[in-house]
Amino acid sequence: MLGQPSFELNDTSEQALQWAVKNRGHHTVRVDPLACTRALHAHGFYYCDTLVEPYCQAAWFIEHPHPAVALHASPALAELEAIASGAFVHGRFHRDPHVPREQAEQRYRQWLEQLHAAGQVWGISMQQQVQGFVAFEGNQLVLHALAEGARGRGWAKYFWSPLCRLLFEQGHTELRSSISASNLAVLNLYASLGFKFRHAQDIYHRLSP
Ligand SMILES: CC(C)(COP(=O)(O)OP(=O)(O)OC[C@H]1O[C@@H](n2cnc3c(N)ncnc32)[C@H](O)[C@@H]1OP(=O)(O)O)[C@@H](O)C(=O)NCCC(=O)NCCS
Known about the structure:
CATH class of the largest domain: Alpha Beta
Structural class: alpha+beta
Helix content: 25-40%
Number of strands: 10
Distance between the termini: 16 Å
Number of helices: 7
Bound molecules: coenzyme A
Largest sheet: 10 strands, mixed
């Protein structure tokens, strides 16, 4: 997806780190924020991001209904791509100084295309104009954005509310997502919907030439 092989290590053992050093490509490893990272640094890994998991049980959900907001089961991919273009600047690949911006964009484009092809993206409109989307896998909200012109107005909670309601109505007892701790707009969005946060993970990358 990044124009080169990309790998995610399951552990930070000496053997795994050596493997990353020897194998060409982009390597990711997730670690507890309090873990010792001396070996990671010694093997050329660098810090990229801290992820946290917003989660919400049905009883905690704070709904913010809005009469002009509606869900669309089959949004056009072109509309979603226009919303997504340049949106994911908090993503770990955008923040990785060794990944060219175009490759980071391409990675999100391909992921969105896959989710759209699998029928896993809801478009969300205000006054019948699609201005946002949420892609999901089961009970997980995996990728989401509002159109640039709709951001920063306090509207996001209205856009997310019908989708959260739908997922709970479908029988999910808990909703989850994964966000960058640096993305305060999405963090406060989830807080305003009643989500709590857990499982902080530091993300380290290594580019092996
Ligand atoms: C994440 C996103 C959907 C949030 O929508 P938004 O329109 O920017 O957010 P809102 O204006 O509705 O604000 C949401 C909450 O965060 C707060 N907030 C917004 N920007 C903030 C900032 N820079 N710092 C701190 N708080 C902020 C708002 O006060 C609001 O809280 P409230 O509802 O309690 O008042 C939007 O920013 C977006 O599409 N970003 C690009 C894609 C992205 O980052 N997606 C998430 C990762 S997949």
